[in-house]
């Protein structure tokens, strides 16, 4: 078994999950959360058991209640909707998503047309596009780069969702640039460090694996990308599971080496369950393939830090270290 590292929780997911836990401890249940706090069914169900109530929109939250915005970010319209309802909002948007929002605002102010590379309907894309809807056009794939229509080809910039395939995004950018040579790049990578690191690790694992299993939920963009990247980089087969018991016996037929990784929203306990399951099937010889070290931690949302001041709790100042559940 080849176990990819880094894998699992990133700093933004860790912060968002701890934010809900801390809100429940500090304000008491229920605490409302708009959308899944992170795209992992196990995380959502665990928080539900502790008293979190997940809603689709802020108009489902009783006036005056606490509501947490998810790690994927929200548009200004959602922030305004919560304020109009008198909600106590706690913004758990990942700081690396907020960075892309700021870029969108700045380029729109300078009258650029923003070609936002991302998946239609994904919450992060809705939030980022909502910062400058009049200036933003979504580009969903390399093929769409060939047909997108722009107002002024000399005043275009590309931005992207944080959890895309690095290779596919660069193909989209190259095809855009072939049509719009003056296309401007974002000031720094929009695809975040965690997405990039997990893709680099699985590329190294995949070339030596007959089978790759990715732990992650179906709506987790970076988990689904890990399956695609594993197949592109040499894995003979690759599957995604939420839980270890979803592994099918026939996947293992004729397989000598299994590669394992997990998406950025996946707690490590789910990976350990998979390792136990695979050890039982004869894949107990584990080699960890390390391609990067991560030690980034984000401080908790400012609303929480302010309310928790004086509680003398060190975790009021920051999230857990990445990798812990
Ligand atoms: S995947 Fe990246 S952008 Fe998304 S929460 Fe994690 S660190 Fe933030």
UniProtKB/TrEMBL annotation:
Signal peptide: none
Pathway in which this enzyme or protein is active: Isoprenoid biosynthesis; dimethylallyl diphosphate biosynthesis; dimethylallyl diphosphate from (2E)-4-hydroxy-3-methylbutenyl diphosphate: step 1/1; Isoprenoid biosynthesis; isopentenyl diphosphate biosynthesis via DXP pathway; isopentenyl diphosphate from 1-deoxy-D-xylulose 5-phosphate: step 6/6
Catalytic residues in the record: 124 (proton donor)
Gene3D superfamilies, alphabetized: 3.40.50.11270, 4-hydroxy-3-methylbut-2-enyl diphosphate reductase, catalytic domain
Reaction(s) catalysed by this chain's protein: dimethylallyl diphosphate + 2 oxidized [2Fe-2S]-[ferredoxin] + H2O = (2E)-4-hydroxy-3-methylbut-2-enyl diphosphate + 2 reduced [2Fe-2S]-[ferredoxin] + 2 H(+); isopentenyl diphosphate + 2 oxidized [2Fe-2S]-[ferredoxin] + H2O = (2E)-4-hydroxy-3-methylbut-2-enyl diphosphate + 2 reduced [2Fe-2S]-[ferredoxin] + 2 H(+)
Keyword Iron annotated: yes
Record's keyword terms, sorted: 4Fe-4S, Iron, Iron-sulfur, Isoprene biosynthesis, Metal-binding, Oxidoreductase
Binding-site positions, isopentenyl diphosphate: 39, 72, 122, 220-222, 265
EC number assigned by the record: 1.17.7.4
Co-factor remark: Binds 1 [4Fe-4S] cluster per subunit.
Binding site for dimethylallyl diphosphate: 39, 72, 122, 220-222, 265
Positions that bind (2E)-4-hydroxy-3-methylbut-2-enyl diphosphate: 39, 72, 122, 162, 220-222, 265
Residues where [4Fe-4S] cluster binds: 10, 94, 192
Protein's UniProt keywords contain 4Fe-4S: yes
Cofactor: [4Fe-4S] cluster
Source organism, top-level taxon: Bacteria
HAMAP family, alphabetized: IspH
Family: Belongs to the IspH family.
Protein purpose: Catalyzes the conversion of 1-hydroxy-2-methyl-2-(E)-butenyl 4-diphosphate (HMBPP) into a mixture of isopentenyl diphosphate (IPP) and dimethylallyl diphosphate (DMAPP). Acts in the terminal step of the DOXP/MEP pathway for isoprenoid precursor biosynthesis.
Protein name, entry field: 4-hydroxy-3-methylbut-2-enyl diphosphate reductase
Organism of provenance: Agreia bicolorata
Gene this chain is encoded by: ispH
């Amino acid at each position: 078994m080849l176990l990819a590292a880094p894998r699992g929780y990133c700093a933004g997911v860790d912060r968002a999950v701890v934010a809900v836990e801390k809100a429940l401890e500090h304000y008491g249940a229920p605490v409302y959360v708009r959308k899944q706090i992170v795209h992992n069914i196990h995380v959502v169900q665990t928080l539900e058991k502790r008293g979190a109530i997940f809603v689709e929109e802020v108009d489902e939250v009783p006036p005056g209640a606490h509501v947490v915005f998810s790690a994927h970010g929200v548009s200004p319209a959602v922030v305004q909707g919560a304020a109009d309802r008198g909600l106590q909002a706690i913004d758990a948007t990942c700081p690396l998503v907020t960075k892309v929002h700021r870029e969108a605002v700045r380029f729109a102010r300078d009258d650029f047309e923003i070609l936002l590379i991302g998946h239609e309907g994904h919450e992060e894309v809705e939030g980022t596009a909502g910062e400058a809807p009049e200036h933003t056009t979504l580009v969903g794939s390399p093929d769409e780069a060939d047909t997108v229509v722009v107002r002024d080809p000399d005043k275009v910039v590309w931005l992207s969702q944080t959890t895309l395939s690095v290779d596919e995004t660069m193909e989209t950018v190259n095809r855009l640039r072939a049509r719009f040579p003056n296309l401007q790049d974002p000031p720094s990578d929009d695809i975040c460090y965690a997405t990039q690191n997990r893709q680099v690790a699985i590329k190294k694992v995949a070339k030596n694996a007959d089978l790759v299993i990715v732990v992650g939920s179906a709506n987790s963009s970076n988990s689904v990308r890990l399956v695609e990247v594993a197949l592109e980089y040499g894995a003979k087969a690759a599957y995604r599971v939420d839980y270890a018991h979803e592994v099918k016996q026939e996947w293992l037929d004729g397989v000598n080496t299994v590669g394992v990784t997990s998406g950025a929203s996946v707690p490590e306990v789910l990976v350990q369950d998979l390792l136990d399951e695979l050890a039982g099937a004869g894949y107990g010889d584990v080699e960890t393939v390390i391609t990067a070290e991560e030690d980034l931690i984000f401080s908790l949302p400012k609303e929480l830090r302010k309310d928790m001041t004086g509680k003398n709790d060190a975790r009021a100042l920051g999230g857990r270290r990445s990798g812990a559940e």
